[in-house]
Design goal:
The protein is α+β, with helices and mostly antiparallel strands and 455 residues long. The chain has helices spanning 3-30, 44-49, 83-95, 104-110, 174-186, 192-204, 209-218, 269-272, 400-409; strands at residues 52-57, 60-65, 79-82, 100-101, 113-116, 118-120, 125-133, 139-143, 148-153, 161-162, 167-172, 224-228, 233-238, 245-246, 251-256, 261-268, 280-284, 293-304, 310-317, 329-335, 342-346, 351-352, 357-363, 367-379, 382-387, 394-398.
Length: 455
């Protein structure tokens, strides 16, 4: 076994011993505190006359001892249990929720800090990493409409930036030259119908309108046609080479526009449901430190990634200067619309056990008790509380784990959440199975009780 294999059990043992020592010290500190809520501290002579019911080890509170001494479990001094503490807990079980009391000095030593449950909107925002990509809606494809030859190119290569109207290649298309010669031969006849038919034939052959106008104005056939870029952007594909033969429909170039560009980010499917089309997004790029770029959500793709369980979101960013290049990375913040007013609580005050969420509720007289809560959305260090607390109550935001350990040692249970209401006439009832000969439902006088919900 390597060295790290020995360090892990040793670290866990030290943590357990530290938690046990803290719980024991907190239990010992609380023994000198009166159990009755709001009762003043008694004098040393009064504490000496207090009736001791039994002694116990805070790590094993279920085991009672008739006399003081060292615990056989943890090798620590036993802690006395006084009669007024038991009476206070018994009375609290009837009149109010059972709780435990911590002296102000002990609270200060533990660094306990309280937070108030407030009501207000929960401002939510999402942070995600993104990558700049081409805007696939701004694409131009240049293809030949008839067979011909490439007579000249303009020394372009894939990845070059071009402006709208930039020449890419000169083409010689014999079929167009023959049609132009026929059109020019019909012009002296001055028959409008024949001229219109000849002009329409030029269009059907795929000849651009500007080339037809140039032939009419010059009165001469134009053997060479210049292929130009219809948009400004970057050449992502270029297949034109001098001297090559072209067939009809051959793709010579593909040009992607750069204004706007896309920011593609992946969001967990649990968070992507809150994203709306058209909402604002802020992006920060390492290439431009300290500068925030604003864009809008253009689309949320309908399919989720099967491996990462994320949804792709596209944000459009304006790029008039062309400085944003596809492939750059960015950090994106999506500011979601604020929700309705809800109960808010600091996230650090919540104790998550895996099955439920607890908070340590602070009451008058320095008393505390665990309460189970139902949580909602969480953002910016605050979490929404759906059930379990009321506005204005105070909870422990720092040091609550020691209190929770002491509550577990003393058998203090958290107040469970109320059960969900039973179905009404307006809600669908659960489907009951049909009775079978071996089922209790087949007996005429049998009754079934709904299964009790576990908190």
């Amino acid at each position: 076994m390597n060295r790290s294999g020995y360090q892990t059990p040793l670290l866990m043992t030290l943590l357990l011993l530290g938690g046990a020592t803290a719980g024991y010290w907190l239990a010992a500190q609380n023994q000198a505190i009166p159990a009755t809520t709001g009762a003043p501290a008694s004098s040393p002579s009064t504490q000496a006359e207090r009736q001791v019911l039994y002694w116990y080890d805070p790590m094993y509170p279920q085991q009672h001892f008739p006399a003081p001494g060292k615990s056989p479990f943890m090798d620590m001094q036993l802690v006395p249990r006084y009669a007024e503490q038991a009476a206070a807990n018994t009375a609290g079980a009837v009149a109010a929720e059972p709780s435990m009391q911590v002296a102000p000095g002990t609270q200060q030593n533990l660094g306990m800090r309280l937070a108030t449950v407030t009501r207000g909107p929960l401002a939510q925002s999402l942070q995600a990493s993104a990558v700049l990509a081409f805007n696939e809606r701004d694409v131009a494809l240049l293809q030949t409409r008839a067979g011909g030859f490439v007579e000249r190119t303009y020394q372009h290569a894939p990845g070059d930036l071009v402006v709208a109207g930039a020449p890419l290649a000169e083409l010689l298309i014999p079929e167009w030259v023959a049609a132009q010669t026929e059109f020019l031969a019909l012009r002296p006849s001055l028959e409008p119908e024949l001229l219109a038919a000849a002009r329409q034939r030029l269009r059907l052959l795929g000849m651009p309108a500007d080339l037809i106008t140039q032939v009419e104005r010059s009165g001469r056939a134009q053997p060479l046609t210049i292929l130009r870029s219809p948009i400004a952007g970057v050449i992502t594909e270029l297949n034109a080479r001098s001297g090559m033969t072209l067939a009809a429909g051959t793709t010579l170039a593909r040009i992607n526009g750069l204004d706007p560009v896309w920011l593609e980010l992946a969001l967990p499917e649990a968070q992507a449901g809150a994203v709306q089309l058209g909402q604002a997004a802020e992006a920060q790029l390492p290439a431009f430190p300290g500068e925030r770029l604003t864009g809008t959500v253009a689309s949320v793709l309908p399919a989720a990634d099967a491996q990462s369980r994320t949804l792709r979101v596209r944000v459009e960013l304006a790029n008039p200067s062309g400085r944003l290049r596809p492939g750059m990375s960015a950090q994106v913040q999506l500011n979601l619309p604020s929700s309705a007013a809800v109960l808010l609580l600091p996230s650090e005050a919540v104790i998550r056990t895996g099955k439920r969420a607890l908070v340590m509720l602070a009451e008058a007289g320095g008393r505390f008790r665990p309460v189970q809560v139902q949580l909602g959305a969480e953002s910016a260090g605050q979490v929404a509380v759906l059930a379990g607390l009321q506005e204005g109550q105070q909870v422990v935001a720092s040091g609550q784990f020691l209190l929770d350990s002491e509550a577990s040692l003393t058998g203090l249970q958290a107040t469970p959440l109320p059960a969900a209401p039973l179905p009404t006439a307006h809600s669908p009832l659960p489907i009951q199975p049909l009775p079978t000969p071996h089922s209790p439902l087949s007996t005429p006088h049998s009754t079934t009780q709904p299964e009790e919900r576990q908190p």
